[in-house]
TrEMBL record:
InterPro entries from the UniProt entry: Fe-S_cluster_assembly_SufBD (IPR055346), SUF_FeS_clus_asmbl_SufBD_core (IPR000825), SUF_FeS_clus_asmbl_SufBD_sf (IPR037284), SUF_FeS_clus_asmbl_SufD (IPR011542)
Similarity comment: Belongs to the iron-sulfur cluster assembly SufBD family.
Any Gene Ontology biological process: iron-sulfur cluster assembly
Protein name: Fe-S cluster assembly protein SufD
Domain SUF system FeS cluster assembly SufBD core intervals: 128-356
Transmembrane regions: none
Source species of the chain: Trebonia kvetii
Domain of life of the source: Bacteria
Amino acid sequence: MSGLSGAVETVPVSDLHALGSTDPADFAVPGGREEEWRFTPLNRLRGLHKDAALTGAVTVDVGAAPEVAVEKVTIDNSERVRLTAAGSFLPTDRVSARAFAAVTEATVLTVPKEAVASAPTYVRVTGTGTETAAAGHLVIDVQPYGRATVIIDQRGSATYANNVEIHVGDGGDLTVVALADWADDTVQVAHHVARLGRDAHLAHYAVTLGGNLVRLSPTVRYDGPGGDAELYGIVFADAGQHLEHRLFVDHDTPKCRSRVGYKVALSGEQAHTVWIGDVLIRPEATGTDTYEYNRNLVLTDGAHADSVPNLEILTGEIVGAGHASASGRLDDEQTFYLQARGIPFEEARRLVIRGFFGELIARIGVPDLEERITGAIEAELS
């Protein structure tokens, strides 16, 4: 595969993810009728899907654990080839391909073989304005039996298209937290593409709170049996926000596991969330164990949640496969129970919502970050 020739890869069994290319010209400009774009308000993308110049910049600062190596790599044509030579990253839509073609510098984090990071590594991305769109590229490479936590902390104002490559080698263990705590005027379209080696584990958290429009597409593929992917989402949309998450788990290897759990709350007029969960179990992926769910808590009139789980199974020799989706309002019995014990309604409401998100927040395992996320959600409620 060559990053210069616009290498195209076809997947014969799943039309939604059939095309991959490094050449933006291989993707038609979306018109809104395509399945992968039908929920996205294209008129709010500021031309990221068309031809907006990706000549702006964001600030990227890394606070790395002592065991983690950090490299800033200037991207030219030869380096683009190197980044795609292993076949670990291939854009699957026009915005991702445009970002990959335009980026001039990549941040590369490497966790050496058998190294155990003693602290989380923070990648702080700060937008400096929305007028000119920017492209970004981050690589997280966990070599065999390495262990690390990486937090992508995104703030400020931006028009931003970015890609994140995640490689977890055999026996490796990685936690990634992508925190979108943008200012209210930010538009972001992001793709996270992960490959897991034999017996590797990835826990990926999408924490999406800020921004005008944020669309995140995580993809997972497996390079060996025993791979285990956990994809979690904590999402709060308020008035006018469009927050969209489109996941694809490609089970193409025997005896791998995936778990997907997204919890979403919406409050305010025209708050809109979209969750698409695509899981493909190919004929060769015997022994697969997968389950996904999305739960949406609609707090006010005028808010709307779209939820579409898709499960494509091409072999009967699996451990298990299932999906669930639910949308509803606050449980009156829970709030009544708390009010009956002297807790005012607004505080009871806050406690119920804290409990709704609490299980997923507690999984992250970084106390300072957990407190920040909890505080941000409570600030949204107030």
